[in-house]
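thought: user wants a sequence for this fold. calling inverse folding tool.
action: design(structure=
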């Protein structure tokens, strides 16, 4: 009747007596709900067979409990299932161990989203402080990218400016571990392959463009291999306005897919609005200075 999954195992040794695997002896009904594996398909199987891995998952932790008899508890991410688990391990008798576990993937996702949101709030706060002291456009834009990459923990942040003559997008500021991704890159807003990516689409259509996963988004085909080389898996392009017109875009890249959700995008739009406001403020000051010298 336990909501948690439970599995009983025994250690498996080779001819020399070395522990090399473990065998699943019995599981409870909740085991299937947490793992997605059928009871009949895992009962009596070796750990490597049941979970489709080259090495038995967590053999070191499990065998220590089975030998010493001292229980342990740990949380882990298990890549073959794409899930986070909380696992308690006990030993009912020498050479055996039982795991009592639950799928905590949803909780971990909520915790991680809270961390991301807090980073973005911190980023927005820092940008507000930068806005107070802004004097130079180039310095302002570079500070924006540096703060977003560092405080927001993004792989890359860059700002592209639209060349009204060529309709190409020129990087004017960039920061992050993956700035090499921009080396030799050609981005356009024209109706051509270089113009159909996230940045070109964002500026041409004047809307936020989100790529949740580079592998699945057809608009990233042109640069997918290069993005993978630099560990870029998701991106958001947000238009920057001056005097009511789109003049460029803020591009932000993440090292994992599916992180640009509704609340994250709302904060990123606020960041882009801050940039537009700062640029408008600079332009206004420059106009005042120009009139003063006439």
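)
observation: tool returned 294 residues.
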């Amino acid at each position: 009747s336990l909501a948690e999954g439970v599995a009983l195992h025994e250690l498996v040794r080779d001819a020399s007596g070395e522990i090399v695997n473990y065998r699943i002896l019995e599981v409870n009904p909740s085991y299937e709900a947490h793992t997605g594996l059928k009871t009949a398909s895992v009962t009596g199987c070796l750990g490597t067979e049941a979970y489709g891995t080259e090495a038995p998952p967590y053999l070191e932790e499990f065998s220590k409990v089975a030998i010493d008899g001292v229980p342990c508890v740990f949380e882990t991410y298990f890549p073959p299932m794409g899930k986070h688990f909380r696992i308690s391990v006990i030993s009912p008798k020498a050479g055996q161990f039982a795991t009592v576990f639950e799928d905590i993937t949803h909780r971990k996702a909520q915790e991680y989203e809270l961390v991301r949101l807090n980073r973005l709030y911190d980023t927005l706060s820092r940008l507000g402080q930068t806005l107070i002291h802004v004097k130079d456009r180039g310095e302002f834009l570079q500070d924006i990218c540096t703060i977003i990459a560092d405080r927001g923990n993004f792989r890359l942040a860059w700002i592209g400016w639209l060349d009204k003559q060529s309709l190409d997008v020129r990087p004017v500021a960039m920061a992050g571990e993956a700035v090499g991704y921009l080396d030799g890159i050609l981005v356009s807003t024209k109706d051509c392959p270089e113009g159909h990516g996230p940045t070109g689409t964002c500026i041409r259509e004047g809307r936020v463009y989100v790529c949740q996963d580079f592998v699945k988004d057809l608009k990233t085909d042109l640069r997918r291999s290069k993005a993978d080389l630099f560990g870029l898996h998701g991106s958001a392009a947000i238009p920057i306005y001056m005097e009511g017109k789109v003049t460029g875009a803020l591009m932000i890249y993440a090292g994992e897919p599916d992180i640009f959700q509704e609340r994250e995008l709302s904060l990123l739009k606020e960041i882009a609005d801050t940039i537009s406001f700062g640029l408008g403020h600079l332009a206004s000051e420059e106009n005042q200075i120009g009139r003063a010298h006439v």
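thought: summarizing for user.
answer: Here is the designed sequence. The radius of gyration is 26 Å.
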